[in-house]
Description:
This protein is mainly alpha-helical.
Amino acid sequence: MRENMFIYRDILLNGMVYDKQAYERRKxxxxxxxxxxxxxxxxxxxxxxxxxxxxRVRGRKWRKxxxxxxPNFKEYQNKQHRDKAKEKRYECxxxxxxxxxxxxxxxxxxxxxxxxDHKNDNxxxxxxxxxNMNIYRWLINNNFPEEYQVLCSNxxxxxxxxxxxxxxxxxxxxxxxxxx
Length: 180
């Protein structure tokens, strides 16, 4: 087992010892379809708010125990979250740029400059409607709605300051005082 991995075996969760090897044997014996059916039934029967609160408490206890067992657990968990967020961002930008990975306006191709833009200029209102959720996660969960596009930072900011029109598309481009 790697040094920074959290411990699977012999951890007390909800009065039970979780045994990763036993779980893998059961999974192999039942097959993926039966395991999925069991998880579906488990989630359906445990979807009440009381159960969710109990699960949150168990999760906190588990994370606290992990920190006692492995001091590097927090770093490991943070790295996992960062990596997952990067994967989601990449997936969204790739989808909305149709695999070209560039700005829809000026064709800027440096990945670090690319951003997701609300075509209808309603980003603030949309962010308020999905509190505590990452925009990339929301886009993936909602099957990539069509009212979004990829713009580079310059085009996105320019569009904001220019009344919804990117300066590259504006006929008065380059004239002083036309941007605010």
